[in-house]
Amino acid sequence: MFLEELKDILLERITVAQRLRMRQRFRANKGKLAAGKRRAERRKADEKTLQKRAKAAARRKIESRILKGRSKSDLTFGEKERLEAIMKRRVKGVIRLARKLLPRLRKKEAMKFSKAAA
Q1: Where are the beta strands (DSSP E) in 45-116?
Q2: What whole-number distance in Å separates Cα of residue 108 and Cα of residue 55?
Q3: Which residues touch 54 (CB under 8 Å, ≥6 apart)?
Q4: Is the pLDDT of residue 59 over 70?
C-alpha cells in the first residue's frame, strides 16, 4: 500500500504538506525498507528487475549528457522541471539505450553469483 501511494504521488505534482507526510512515512518505515533491500541483494534479480535497472541506468546516462557534468542535486526546482520535460520527450531514446545496457547488467548480475566472485 505504501509503495502504491508513492507511485501515485510520483506521477503527479505534490504539495509541501504531502511531501512532509511522505517524509514522515519514509522515516517510520526506514528499517523495513532497509531489511527488504538486504534480502533483495541476496536474491538473483529477475528479468523485470534487470529491465528496470537498465531503464534507470539509461535515464541517468541521458540526464548526465543533458546536464553536461552538473549534478542533478545542484539544479534549481525550475531546472529540474525543465530536465523532466526534456526526459519526457526522450522516452524512446531511454528505451533504446536500456536495451543496449541490458546484456552488461545481466553479465554483472551473473558475476555477482558466480564462484569467481566469491
Answers
A1: none
A2: 15
A3: 98, 99, 101, 102, 105
A4: yes
